[in-house]
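User: quick one, fold this
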Amino acid sequence: MMWLAKYITDVPHIQTRLRSVLSLAFPAAKEEGRCFTFQEIRQARLPYLDAIIEEMLRINAVPVTREALHDTTILGCPIKKGTQVFLISNGPGFLTPSIFPDEFKRSEHSRKAKLNDTWDEGQDLSRFVPERWLLRKKDGAGLTAEDVEFDGAAGPQLVFGLGPRACWGRRLALMEIKVMVAMLVWNFELLKTAPALSTYSGLEGIARVPKQCYIMISKL
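Assistant:
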């Protein structure tokens, strides 16, 4: 939530677009001058909001660790049993262009399971651009479910893990953050804060959190 508050503030066109998408998604709430209900947002398809959340998680991901249960090999490198392997998700392939190893050094299973064929690394990967995660369904600039589709496999993402060891609380966590972000943007405009209060330095731990998160809001 802290990172999202910072990005939505500092990239104002994203805040404006999201507010417009929410207004179109919840016309009854807009007409009645109320906030949407949980039932309404639970049933709504909001690909642009999904993309905003996914992009935040990509830029501020956490390392995933695994322990080798037996002697093995990763990309041609021998790994001994008991070794802690860190899967770093804030380097090449995430925030900078990928470093491509010899494909024959990958395991057969890895080659078959490769997903991220649609990711465009020609863009500046360090920028906050939610549209990376959207597939356009028709011409135009619309961002509703009729215009675009959220593609969670468009790019690299390890924040919840993958496969049988993926986080079982993922759906609940994403639903919680979706509700909070939508309510914040629905009810308030996030205004620019002073540069001295808006740095993007973070603290690394189980999660990466910003050292500063100050907001200035105006009631809509």
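User: anything notable?
Assistant: The mean pLDDT is 89.
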